[in-house]
Design a protein that fits this description.
The complex is a heterodimer of chains A (259) and B (66).
Chain A: H1 2-17, H2 20-40, H3 42-49, H4 65-88, H5 93-98, H6 100-105, H7 111-144, H8 150-177, H9 181-201, H10 213-223, H11 230-258
Helix pairs in contact in A: 1-7, 2-4, 2-7, 4-7, 4-8, 4-9, 4-10, 7-8, 7-11, 8-9, 8-10, 8-11
Chain B: H1 2-6, H2 9-32, H3 40-49, H4 53-62
Classes of the chains: A mainly alpha (259), B mainly alpha (66).
């Protein structure tokens, strides 16, 4: 356990040297507050950029606070996932290339601690960035529109975090299996977007799929009630995360032994 | 001018400040780093000109870890 914490510390050190602790949280916060701001100031923005003829009246229905919050959450679904993939795609393969893996593994470090410490480091970075970003979004929506109950924010947070952690674990798995960070990014992004597409069109067939979690969050925020399939979907997300992690360790072990 | 007065600066200021932090950190790192992927002056322009996305691109693609 002691050794595991030393490895985790190394991860933190590396993430701060890469400035990941600066740019990942900042990006998530920006993603969170841009939507409430732009939708609130939309009339002024149109006024200042558009050459509309005198007397044009544009009626924009004022969105509700929940709608604005959902809109800013959808940014995490697209750009947030992109940031997660880009910031962690080299998590294992990068160290393999630079030779750090070999330096660490000559010491009595198990494959298990090596992979799980890396995974835990990335998990802490992403989940705390997401927390800050969603909190900022919740706050801005509250100031500009109307404060949603804090329990709504927490409910949205855990379901979103569960979904994004699953994506992160998929990145770790691909990074352990594939040589090039670029290939890792491609494979995960294509997988996630195809799954989203399938999940989006076959909503009834795939009610238990973790890809539905963001959808269920929107439902929770508009109707104030969790849809009934949230629990199996959340359970499956946790199960898949665990399975991906085990697979990552096994694949990594086999690859390192083969070299 | 009317537009500038109608804006709530207490809400816009944090947005501008964290953008500036992002830009400053990227620039400081660019100056300190010996090697980047691609010419340094190009990255300086990208960081300064392309809002938000520029510094992120630099951290993801431009930085070379040693």
């Amino acid at each position: 356990m002691n050794q595991w914490f030393i490895l985790l510390k190394k991860e933190f050190l590396e993430m701060s040297r890469n400035y990941k602790w600066v740019w990942v949280p900042i990006t998530f916060i920006l993603l969170g507050i841009l939507d409430p701001l732009t939708s609130y100031y939309l009339p002024q923005i149109i006024d200042s950029v558009g050459d509309l003829p005198e007397g044009t009246v544009i009626q924009i229905p004022e969105p509700s606070a929940a709608e604005v919050f959902i809109m800013s959450l959808s940014e995490y679904q697209l750009i947030g996932i992109l940031i997660i993939v880009l910031s962690t795609m080299a998590i294992v393969s990068g160290e393999r290339k630079s030779g750090v893996v070999q330096l660490i593994l000559v010491k009595p470090v198990s494959y298990f601690s090596y992979i799980t410490s890396k995974w835990a480091g990335a998990l802490i970075l992403i989940s705390s960035s997401l927390f800050l970003g969603m909190l900022a979004s919740w706050y801005y929506t509250g100031v500009l529109y109307e404060f949603l109950p804090f329990s709504d924010f927490l409910a949205a947070y855990w379901a979103y975090a569960l979904w994004l952690i699953l994506v992160l674990t998929l990145v770790v798995l691909c990074s352990a299996a594939l040589k090039h960070p670029g290939a890792t990014a491609m494979v995960t992004l294509i997988t996630v977007f195809v799954l989203n597409l399938v999940g989006g069109s076959l909503t009834h067939a795939l009610e238990w799929s973790p890809t539905q979690l963001p959808l269920y969050v929107s439902e929770r925020l508009t109707t104030n009630q969790w849809p009934e399939h949230i629990w199996p979907a959340a359970g499956l997300a946790a199960l898949f995360t665990f399975a991906f992690l085990v697979m990552a360790i096994l694949l990594f072990k086999r690859k390192e032994l083969a070299d | 001018m009317e537009l500038l007065e109608s804006v709530n600066w207490a809400l816009i200021a944090p947005l501008i400040i964290i953008q500036l932090i992002l830009m400053a950190v990227a620039l400081v790192d660019l100056i300190k780093n010996d090697k980047t992927n691609g010419p340094k002056w190009m990255w300086a322009i990208i960081i300064l000109v392309v809002n938000i996305v520029g510094p992120i691109l630099y951290f993801v693609i431009g930085r070379r870890n040693h």
